[in-house]
Amino acid sequence: MRGAQVYRWQIPMDAGVVLRERRLKTREGLFVHLQQGERNGWGEISPLPGFSQESMDDAQTALMSWVDAWRDGANPSLPDIPSAAFGISCALAELSGSLPAEANYHAAPLCTGDPDELFALLSAMPGEKVAKIKVGLYEAVRDGMVVNLLLEATPDLHLRLDANRAWTPLKAQQFAKYVNPAWRNRIAFLEEPCKTRDDSRAFAQETGIAIAWDESLREADFRFDAEPGVSAVVIKPTLTGSLEKIREQVLSARACGLTAVISSSIESSLGLTQLARIAAWLTPNTTPGLDTLNLMQAQLIRQWPGSSLPCLGIEALEPLR
Questions:
Q1: pTM confidence score
Q2: What value, to the nearest 5°, has the Cα angle with vertex 214 and ends 140 and 63?
Protein backbone atom coordinates (compact mmCIF):
# COMPACT_ATOMS: atom_id res chain seq x y z
CA MET A 1 0.00 0.00 0.00
CA ARG A 2 1.40 3.38 -1.04
CA GLY A 3 0.86 6.72 0.67
CA ALA A 4 2.08 10.16 -0.33
CA GLN A 5 1.72 13.60 1.19
CA VAL A 6 2.83 16.93 -0.25
CA TYR A 7 3.52 19.92 2.00
CA ARG A 8 4.25 23.55 1.24
CA TRP A 9 6.52 25.62 3.49
CA GLN A 10 7.95 29.11 3.88
CA ILE A 11 10.87 30.30 6.02
CA PRO A 12 11.81 33.96 6.73
CA MET A 13 15.30 34.87 5.52
CA ASP A 14 17.90 37.18 7.00
CA ALA A 15 17.38 40.72 5.72
CA GLY A 16 20.66 40.90 3.81
CA VAL A 17 20.13 38.02 1.32
CA VAL A 18 20.27 39.34 -2.26
CA LEU A 19 20.08 37.07 -5.32
CA ARG A 20 20.62 38.51 -8.80
CA GLU A 21 19.84 42.01 -7.50
CA ARG A 22 16.62 40.79 -5.83
CA ARG A 23 16.19 40.76 -2.06
CA LEU A 24 14.98 37.34 -0.90
CA LYS A 25 12.72 37.91 2.09
CA THR A 26 11.44 34.34 2.40
CA ARG A 27 12.48 30.94 1.09
CA GLU A 28 9.61 28.71 0.03
CA GLY A 29 9.34 25.20 -1.24
CA LEU A 30 7.59 21.85 -1.16
CA PHE A 31 8.24 18.56 0.59
CA VAL A 32 7.04 15.19 -0.65
CA HIS A 33 6.72 12.35 1.87
CA LEU A 34 6.35 8.85 0.38
CA GLN A 35 5.32 5.76 2.33
CA GLN A 36 5.22 2.13 1.27
CA GLY A 37 4.70 -0.49 3.95
CA GLU A 38 7.11 0.26 6.79
CA ARG A 39 9.39 2.38 4.63
CA ASN A 40 9.24 6.09 3.98
CA GLY A 41 11.20 8.81 2.21
CA TRP A 42 11.32 12.59 2.06
CA GLY A 43 12.31 14.95 -0.72
CA GLU A 44 12.52 18.73 -1.13
CA ILE A 45 11.38 20.67 -4.18
CA SER A 46 12.39 24.32 -3.90
CA PRO A 47 13.12 26.25 -7.11
CA LEU A 48 15.58 29.09 -6.47
CA PRO A 49 14.29 32.52 -7.60
CA GLY A 50 16.51 34.07 -10.24
CA PHE A 51 18.32 30.78 -10.93
CA SER A 52 15.72 28.03 -11.52
CA GLN A 53 13.98 28.11 -14.89
CA GLU A 54 10.74 26.84 -13.34
CA SER A 55 8.43 28.69 -10.97
CA MET A 56 7.00 27.31 -7.73
CA ASP A 57 3.67 26.80 -9.50
CA ASP A 58 5.40 24.83 -12.28
CA ALA A 59 7.15 22.64 -9.72
CA GLN A 60 3.98 22.09 -7.70
CA THR A 61 1.95 21.11 -10.77
CA ALA A 62 4.61 18.60 -11.88
CA LEU A 63 4.97 17.18 -8.36
CA MET A 64 1.22 16.74 -7.84
CA SER A 65 0.82 14.98 -11.17
CA TRP A 66 3.65 12.57 -10.36
CA VAL A 67 2.39 11.90 -6.82
CA ASP A 68 -1.15 11.11 -8.03
CA ALA A 69 0.17 8.55 -10.50
CA TRP A 70 2.60 6.99 -8.00
CA ARG A 71 -0.03 6.76 -5.27
CA ASP A 72 -2.29 4.89 -7.71
CA GLY A 73 0.37 2.20 -8.17
CA ALA A 74 2.14 3.39 -11.31
CA ASN A 75 5.88 4.03 -11.60
CA PRO A 76 5.81 7.31 -13.53
CA SER A 77 8.89 8.88 -15.09
CA LEU A 78 10.42 11.77 -13.21
CA PRO A 79 9.28 15.23 -14.33
CA ASP A 80 11.45 17.25 -16.71
CA ILE A 81 11.44 20.08 -14.15
CA PRO A 82 14.82 19.90 -12.32
CA SER A 83 13.71 20.78 -8.78
CA ALA A 84 10.81 18.31 -8.92
CA ALA A 85 13.00 15.56 -10.38
CA PHE A 86 15.60 16.10 -7.66
CA GLY A 87 13.17 16.07 -4.74
CA ILE A 88 11.20 13.07 -5.99
CA SER A 89 14.38 11.09 -6.71
CA CYS A 90 15.61 11.78 -3.15
CA ALA A 91 12.31 10.59 -1.67
CA LEU A 92 12.44 7.42 -3.78
CA ALA A 93 16.08 6.82 -2.82
CA GLU A 94 15.23 7.11 0.89
CA LEU A 95 12.25 4.83 0.36
CA SER A 96 14.41 2.15 -1.29
CA GLY A 97 17.37 2.63 1.06
CA SER A 98 19.68 3.54 -1.85
CA LEU A 99 20.65 6.99 -0.50
CA PRO A 100 23.47 6.27 1.97
CA ALA A 101 23.04 7.60 5.50
CA GLU A 102 26.65 8.77 5.88
CA ALA A 103 26.95 12.54 5.40
CA ASN A 104 29.68 15.15 4.94
CA TYR A 105 28.72 18.04 7.22
CA HIS A 106 32.13 19.73 6.85
CA ALA A 107 30.83 22.48 4.57
CA ALA A 108 33.05 25.28 3.28
CA PRO A 109 31.94 28.34 5.30
CA LEU A 110 30.41 31.21 3.35
CA CYS A 111 32.40 34.28 4.41
CA THR A 112 30.51 37.54 4.69
CA GLY A 113 30.80 40.65 6.82
CA ASP A 114 33.69 42.16 8.72
CA PRO A 115 37.17 40.82 7.75
CA ASP A 116 38.28 40.78 11.42
CA GLU A 117 35.41 38.39 12.24
CA LEU A 118 36.40 36.25 9.27
CA PHE A 119 39.98 35.96 10.54
CA ALA A 120 38.70 34.56 13.84
CA LEU A 121 36.34 32.14 12.07
CA LEU A 122 39.03 30.87 9.70
CA SER A 123 41.70 30.58 12.38
CA ALA A 124 39.39 28.37 14.45
CA MET A 125 38.54 26.03 11.55
CA PRO A 126 39.73 22.45 12.15
CA GLY A 127 41.50 20.50 9.43
CA GLU A 128 41.62 21.74 5.86
CA LYS A 129 40.81 25.44 5.65
CA VAL A 130 38.46 25.92 2.69
CA ALA A 131 36.09 28.89 2.59
CA LYS A 132 33.84 30.56 0.03
CA ILE A 133 33.36 34.24 -0.79
CA LYS A 134 30.74 35.79 -3.06
CA VAL A 135 32.38 38.37 -5.31
CA GLY A 136 30.84 40.64 -7.91
CA LEU A 137 28.35 42.23 -5.51
CA TYR A 138 30.57 45.26 -4.87
CA GLU A 139 33.41 46.94 -6.74
CA ALA A 140 35.88 44.48 -8.26
CA VAL A 141 38.81 46.34 -6.70
CA ARG A 142 37.27 45.95 -3.24
CA ASP A 143 36.75 42.23 -3.86
CA GLY A 144 40.38 41.84 -4.88
CA MET A 145 41.62 43.64 -1.78
CA VAL A 146 39.46 41.52 0.57
CA VAL A 147 40.57 38.26 -1.06
CA ASN A 148 44.20 39.33 -0.94
CA LEU A 149 43.89 40.29 2.74
CA LEU A 150 42.41 36.91 3.70
CA LEU A 151 45.04 34.94 1.77
CA GLU A 152 47.83 37.01 3.29
CA ALA A 153 46.52 36.68 6.85
CA THR A 154 45.79 32.93 6.69
CA PRO A 155 48.67 31.12 4.94
CA ASP A 156 46.96 27.69 4.90
CA LEU A 157 43.64 29.02 3.55
CA HIS A 158 42.21 28.01 0.16
CA LEU A 159 39.37 30.12 -1.17
CA ARG A 160 36.50 29.33 -3.48
CA LEU A 161 35.10 32.45 -5.12
CA ASP A 162 31.79 32.88 -6.92
CA ALA A 163 31.13 35.78 -9.28
CA ASN A 164 27.91 34.51 -10.93
CA ARG A 165 29.06 36.00 -14.26
CA ALA A 166 28.97 39.50 -12.78
CA TRP A 167 32.12 40.93 -14.39
CA THR A 168 33.15 42.31 -17.73
CA PRO A 169 36.71 41.32 -18.73
CA LEU A 170 37.89 44.74 -17.50
CA LYS A 171 36.27 44.31 -14.09
CA ALA A 172 37.74 40.79 -13.79
CA GLN A 173 41.20 42.16 -14.51
CA GLN A 174 40.70 44.90 -11.91
CA PHE A 175 39.94 42.19 -9.37
CA ALA A 176 43.02 40.14 -10.28
CA LYS A 177 45.29 43.20 -10.16
CA TYR A 178 44.80 43.39 -6.38
CA VAL A 179 45.51 39.70 -5.68
CA ASN A 180 49.20 38.96 -5.14
CA PRO A 181 50.34 36.57 -7.92
CA ALA A 182 52.21 34.53 -5.28
CA TRP A 183 48.90 33.68 -3.58
CA ARG A 184 46.69 33.09 -6.59
CA ASN A 185 47.30 29.34 -6.50
CA ARG A 186 45.41 29.29 -3.18
CA ILE A 187 42.26 30.36 -4.99
CA ALA A 188 40.89 26.86 -5.53
CA PHE A 189 38.61 28.26 -8.21
CA LEU A 190 36.59 31.29 -9.21
CA GLU A 191 33.13 30.33 -10.46
CA GLU A 192 32.18 31.89 -13.80
CA PRO A 193 33.93 35.28 -13.44
CA CYS A 194 32.64 36.74 -16.73
CA LYS A 195 29.42 36.87 -18.69
CA THR A 196 30.67 34.45 -21.37
CA ARG A 197 32.66 31.25 -21.13
CA ASP A 198 35.25 32.53 -23.61
CA ASP A 199 35.88 35.64 -21.48
CA SER A 200 36.17 33.45 -18.37
CA ARG A 201 38.66 31.16 -20.14
CA ALA A 202 40.73 34.18 -21.21
CA PHE A 203 40.72 35.49 -17.62
CA ALA A 204 42.10 32.16 -16.34
CA GLN A 205 44.83 32.11 -18.98
CA GLU A 206 45.88 35.72 -18.34
CA THR A 207 45.84 35.66 -14.53
CA GLY A 208 46.68 32.08 -13.57
CA ILE A 209 43.53 32.02 -11.38
CA ALA A 210 41.66 28.73 -11.86
CA ILE A 211 38.00 28.92 -12.78
CA ALA A 212 35.02 26.61 -12.32
CA TRP A 213 31.86 26.08 -14.32
CA ASP A 214 28.52 26.51 -12.57
CA GLU A 215 25.76 28.12 -14.67
CA SER A 216 27.38 26.62 -17.78
CA LEU A 217 26.44 23.09 -16.69
CA ARG A 218 22.78 23.93 -17.30
CA GLU A 219 23.28 25.23 -20.85
CA ALA A 220 22.46 23.01 -23.81
CA ASP A 221 25.87 23.31 -25.48
CA PHE A 222 27.95 22.53 -22.38
CA ARG A 223 30.36 19.60 -22.61
CA PHE A 224 32.65 18.17 -19.93
CA ASP A 225 36.19 18.71 -21.21
CA ALA A 226 39.66 19.05 -19.74
CA GLU A 227 40.66 22.66 -20.40
CA PRO A 228 43.65 24.76 -19.31
CA GLY A 229 42.72 26.93 -16.34
CA VAL A 230 39.50 25.07 -15.50
CA SER A 231 39.76 23.09 -12.27
CA ALA A 232 36.22 22.29 -11.10
CA VAL A 233 32.50 22.09 -11.74
CA VAL A 234 29.95 23.18 -9.16
CA ILE A 235 26.86 20.99 -9.17
CA LYS A 236 23.66 22.39 -7.64
CA PRO A 237 21.26 19.43 -7.47
CA THR A 238 18.07 21.52 -7.16
CA LEU A 239 19.02 23.20 -10.46
CA THR A 240 20.32 19.99 -12.05
CA GLY A 241 17.63 17.32 -11.68
CA SER A 242 17.54 13.70 -10.60
CA LEU A 243 20.11 11.86 -8.50
CA GLU A 244 20.99 9.86 -11.61
CA LYS A 245 21.76 13.04 -13.57
CA ILE A 246 23.85 14.36 -10.67
CA ARG A 247 25.80 11.11 -10.54
CA GLU A 248 26.38 11.24 -14.32
CA GLN A 249 27.77 14.79 -14.03
CA VAL A 250 30.10 13.82 -11.18
CA LEU A 251 31.45 10.87 -13.20
CA SER A 252 31.86 13.02 -16.34
CA ALA A 253 33.79 15.64 -14.36
CA ARG A 254 36.02 13.04 -12.76
CA ALA A 255 36.75 11.44 -16.15
CA CYS A 256 38.33 14.66 -17.42
CA GLY A 257 40.21 15.49 -14.24
CA LEU A 258 37.85 18.12 -12.82
CA THR A 259 36.85 18.40 -9.17
CA ALA A 260 33.07 18.08 -8.69
CA VAL A 261 31.63 20.11 -5.80
CA ILE A 262 28.09 19.52 -4.50
CA SER A 263 26.61 22.92 -3.69
CA SER A 264 23.49 24.39 -2.11
CA SER A 265 20.68 26.34 -3.74
CA ILE A 266 19.60 27.63 -0.30
CA GLU A 267 17.56 24.56 0.56
CA SER A 268 15.93 24.02 3.95
CA SER A 269 17.75 22.01 6.62
CA LEU A 270 16.01 18.85 5.34
CA GLY A 271 17.34 19.40 1.83
CA LEU A 272 20.78 20.40 3.10
CA THR A 273 21.17 17.21 5.14
CA GLN A 274 20.33 15.22 2.01
CA LEU A 275 22.91 17.19 0.03
CA ALA A 276 25.48 16.35 2.73
CA ARG A 277 24.65 12.67 2.21
CA ILE A 278 24.91 13.02 -1.58
CA ALA A 279 28.30 14.74 -1.17
CA ALA A 280 29.63 11.95 1.06
CA TRP A 281 28.37 9.36 -1.44
CA LEU A 282 29.40 10.87 -4.79
CA THR A 283 32.26 13.25 -3.87
CA PRO A 284 33.72 11.71 -0.69
CA ASN A 285 37.05 13.55 -0.79
CA THR A 286 35.71 17.02 -1.57
CA THR A 287 34.34 19.60 0.87
CA PRO A 288 30.82 20.52 -0.28
CA GLY A 289 29.46 24.05 -0.51
CA LEU A 290 26.50 23.84 1.86
CA ASP A 291 26.95 26.74 4.28
CA THR A 292 23.62 28.49 3.61
CA LEU A 293 21.47 27.47 6.58
CA ASN A 294 22.33 30.59 8.58
CA LEU A 295 20.73 32.70 5.85
CA MET A 296 17.42 31.38 7.22
CA GLN A 297 15.67 31.93 10.53
CA ALA A 298 14.58 28.32 11.18
CA GLN A 299 15.18 24.67 10.31
CA LEU A 300 12.53 22.23 9.09
CA ILE A 301 11.91 18.54 9.99
CA ARG A 302 15.60 17.54 10.12
CA GLN A 303 18.37 19.34 11.97
CA TRP A 304 21.79 20.26 10.67
CA PRO A 305 24.32 19.12 13.31
CA GLY A 306 25.47 21.96 15.53
CA SER A 307 22.95 24.52 14.31
CA SER A 308 21.33 26.67 17.00
CA LEU A 309 18.38 27.63 14.80
CA PRO A 310 14.98 26.35 15.98
CA CYS A 311 13.79 23.24 14.13
CA LEU A 312 10.11 23.26 13.21
CA GLY A 313 8.11 20.06 12.78
CA ILE A 314 5.35 18.89 10.46
CA GLU A 315 2.87 21.17 12.21
CA ALA A 316 4.66 24.16 10.62
CA LEU A 317 3.99 22.83 7.11
CA GLU A 318 0.92 23.42 4.94
CA PRO A 319 -0.48 20.04 3.77
CA LEU A 320 -1.63 20.10 0.16
CA ARG A 321 -2.78 16.55 -0.57
A1: 0.93
A2: 130
